[in-house]
Write a structure and sequence with these properties.
The complex is a heterodimer. By secondary structure, chain A is of the alpha/beta class. Chain A folds into 2 domains: 142 residues, 3-Layer(aba) Sandwich (Rossmann fold), CATH 3.40.50.300; 60 residues, no CATH class. In chain A, 30% of the residues lie in helices and 24% in strands. Chain A has 7 helices and 10 strands. In chain A, strand 7, helix 5 and strand 8 form a beta-alpha-beta unit. Chain A is globular and about 50 Å long. Chain B is an all-alpha fold. Chain B starts with a helix and ends in a 6-residue tail after the last helix. Classes of the chains: A alpha/beta, B mainly alpha. The complex binds adenosine-5'-triphosphate and magnesium ion. Adenosine-5'-triphosphate binds next to helix 1 of chain A.
Chain lengths: 254, 266
C-alpha cells in the first residue's frame, strides 16, 4: 500500500468554506495493534457527517489523524486535494472536555493561536455562541455548558473549512445538549464548513447529519444517507426508522 | 459598597493576621515590666526595641541586615535558577529526566547543613560558604516543584495547543509554564524558608558579618537584648519574603479558584 494515492478531484467542486475530505486506505496502528485498517471515506464540501460506534473502535483516533495530532501508518488524508499536514489551520477540533486554559480569560482562550489583530474576530465568535458578555471572565466561573460553548467559539474563530467534533456534548445535561445541537447546526448552516461529529447518541447523529457512519473495528461498516430538510423534527417517522436501524446494527455486534 | 469602606475593610482584613503576635508582645512586655521574668533570660520588648534603636543609630544593624539579605538573595538566585532550569529541562525532556533525576534525588538525601564542616575546610569562612549552602538548600525545592509542575501539566491542554497551531515557544509560554506555575510558586515559598534557615546556621557558625554573626557576637557580651533582636529580625525578614511570594501568588494565580477569593490562606 502506498502513502501517496493520487485522487482525482475537480477544482470546480470546491466550496468557499467547506473542505472536501478524501480519506483513502487510511491505516493506523499503535505498536502491534491495528486501530484503523484500510479506512475509506469521501466527504463533499459542506457535508455533515456523524460517526457512531462502540467505545474503542477508533473514532477519536480517526479525528486525531484528520487534524494532524497523529500521523497515519498508512494511506492519506486530503483536504481539497492537499495533504492535511500542510494545512492544519483549516481543520479545527473540539474535544469532549472543553480544554480551555484556566489562566486565560474567555476572550484570550477563544483567540488562542490567532495572530495579528485577533480580538474583534474572537469577540464576534463569542457573540455567535451567545457569550459576548462573558469575554473577560475566567473560564473557572462559567458553567460546563458555557465552557463548551467557549470551546466551540474557539474552534470557529478562524473560520475553519473542516470542523471535527469528538463527542463535544457527551458531558452535558440533556437540555444543554439540545441547545448546543441547535447552535452547532445553526453555525454549520451559516458558515458552510464540513463537519464530522463523533457521538454516542444515535438520535443526535440522525438529527444533525447528512450521513451517518457506523464504525466497527476501525472500518466504516454502515453508511446511511439522511435526506431530510432542516430543522428536523424529533420523532419524525423516517428519522426514527433510520435510528432504529442504526441502533440494531450497533447492538447486533458479534 | 463604596471604595472607602472597601479599602477600609481590606485594611482591616490585612491586619487580622497580626493580632496574635501583637497580643503576645503585649503580654510579654507586661510580664517583663512586672519583673515576672528576669531581663537576663528574656529582656522586655521595650529593651529589644531600645537595642534595635541603638544598633540602628550606629549603622551596625543595617549593615548586618544588608549583608544577610544580599546573601539570601544571591544564594536564592543561584540555587533557584539552577533548580528552575533543570526542573524545566527534566520536565519537558524524558531522556534528560532519565539521565539526571535519580542523581539529583540521591544528592537530595544528604542534608545540606551537614556539609558545613566540609565547606569550612574548603572555603574557610568567606562569602562562598554562605552562597553555596543557601544555593544548595534552595536548589531542591525549586527543582522538584518545577519538575513536578511541568510534568503534571494537563496533557489535554498541551494537545489542544498543538491542534490550534501553537509553536513550541508559544506552547511553553502559554500552556506549560502557566500550568506549572502554581507548583513552582509552592517551591519558591518552601525555598525561601530554607534560605533563611540555612543563613541562620551558616552565619552563626561561619561568618564575620550578618545578623547571625551579630547575635553570636552579642552572646559573648551577654547582650540578650541584641540576641533577641537578631532572632526577631530573622523572623521579620522571613515573613517579608513569604508575604512577597504570597503577593506574587495572588497576582500570577488570579485565575485559580483558590486565589480568586480575597484574603490570604496560609
Ligand atoms: N496513543 C495510543 N497508544 C496506544 N493505543 C491507543 C492510543 N490511542 C488510542 N489507542 C487505542 O486505539 C483504540 C481506539 O481508541 P479511540 O480513542 O480512537 O476509540 P474511540 O472510538 O474514540 O472510543 P470512545 O468511544 O470510547 O471514545 C483503543 O483500543 C485505544 O486503546
Ligand atoms: Mg473517543
Amino acid at each position: 500500500m502506498t502513502g501517496t494515492m493520487k485522487m482525482p478531484y475537480s477544482p470546480n467542486s470546491l466550496s468557499q468554506t467547506g473542505a472536501e475530505v478524501r480519506i483513502s486506505h487510511l491505516g493506523k496502528s499503535f505498536g502491534e495493534r491495528p486501530v484503523l485498517t484500510d479506512f475509506e471515506l469521501n466527504i463533499s464540501p459542506g457535508e455533515f457527517i456523524a460517526i457512531v460506534g462502540h467505545s474503542g473502535c477508533g473514532k477519536s483516533t480517526l479525528l486525531r489523524l484528520i487534524c494532524g495530532l497523529e500521523d497515519p501508518s498508512e494511506g492519506s488524508i486530503e483536504l481539497n486535494g492537499r495533504p492535511v499536514r500542510e494545512q492544519i489551520s483549516e481543520a479545527r477540533i473540539m474535544f469532549q472536555d472543553n480544554r480551555l486554559l484556566p489562566w486565560r480569560r474567555v476572550l484570550e482562550n477563544v483567540g488562542i493561536g490567532q495572530r495579528g489583530n485577533w480580538e474583534p474576530a474572537a469577540l464576534e465568535a463569542l457573540e455567535q455562541v451567545g457569550l459576548g458578555a462573558r469575554a473577560h471572565d475566567w473560564p473557572a466561573v462559567l458553567s460546563g455548558g458555557q465552557r463548551q460553548r467557549v470551546a466551540l467559539a474557539r474552534a470557529l474563530v478562524s473560520h475553519p473549512k473542516l470542523l471535527l467534533l469528538d463527542e463535544p456534548l457527551g458531558a452535558l445535561d440533556a437540555l444543554t445538549r439540545l441547545d448546543m445541537q441547535r447552535l452547532i447546526e445553526d453555525v454549520w448552516i451559516r458558515q458552510g464548513f464540513t463537519a464530522i461529529l463523533v457521538t454516542h447518541d444515535v438520535t443526535e447523529a440522525v438529527m444533525l447529519a447528512d450521513r451517518v457512519i457506523v464504525m466497527e473495528n476501525g472500518v466504516a461498516r454502515l453508511v446511511r444517507r439522511i435526506d431530510r430538510p432542516r430543522p428536523r423534527v424529533r420523532g419524525d417517522n423516517y428519522l426514527s426508522a433510520i435510528e432504529a436501524e442504526i441502533l440494531s446494527r450497533l447492538l447486533s455486534r458479534p | 459598597m463604596n471604595s472607602i469602606t472597601r479599602s477600609f475593610s481590606n485594611a482591616l482584613r490585612a491586619t487580622i493576621p497580626w493580632a496574635v503576635p501583637i497580643g503576645i508582645l503585649l503580654v510579654w512586655q507586661i510580664a517583663a515590666s512586672l519583673h515576672w521574668i528576669s531581663s537576663t533570660v528574656i529582656p522586655a520588648p521595650s529593651a529589644v526595641l531600645a537595642a534595635g534603636i541603638r544598633t540602628a543609630a550606629s549603622g551596625e544593624l543595617f549593615r548586618h541586615i544588608g549583608v544577610s539579605t544580599a546573601r539570601a538573595a544571591a544564594g536564592f538566585a543561584l540555587g533557584g535558577s539552577i533548580g528552575f532550569v533543570f526542573g524545566l529541562l527534566n520536565g519537558v525532556s524524558k531522556p534528560a529526566a532519565r539521565l539526571l533525576d535519580s542523581s539529583f534525588q540521591m544528592v537530595r538525601n544528604v542534608p545540606h547543613l551537614a556539609l558545613i564542616p566540609l565547606f569550612i575546610l574548603w572555603f574557610g569562612i568567606d562569602e562562598r560558604i554562605k552562597l553555596y549552602l543557601v544555593a544548595l538548600g534552595v536548589f531542591f525545592p525549586i527543582y522538584l516543584n518545577t519538575f513536578h509542575g511541568v510534568r503534571t501539566v494537563d496533557t489535554g491542554l498541551v494537545e489542544m495547543g498543538r491542534a490550534y497551531g501553537l509553536s513550541r515557544a508559544e506552547l511553553f509560554r502559554q500552556v506549560i509554564f502557566p500550568g506549572a506555575l502554581p507548583s513552582i510558586l509552592v517551591g519558591v515559598r518552601f525555598a525561601l524558608g530554607i534560605t533563611w534557615l540555612t543563613l541562620v546556621v551558616a552565619e552563626t557558625i561561619a561568618a564575620s558579618s550578618g545578623i547571625g554573626y551579630m547575635t553570636m557576637n552579642a552572646r559573648e557580651f551577654l547582650q540578650t537584648d541584641v540576641v533577641l533582636l537578631g532572632i526577631l529580625i530573622y523572623a521579620v525578614l522571613g515573613k517579608l519574603a513569604d508575604s512577597g511570594t504570597q503577593l506574587l501568588e495572588r497576582r500570577c494565580l488570579a485565575w485559580h479558584p483558590a486565589f480568586a477569593t480575597q484574603g490570604a490562606k496560609n
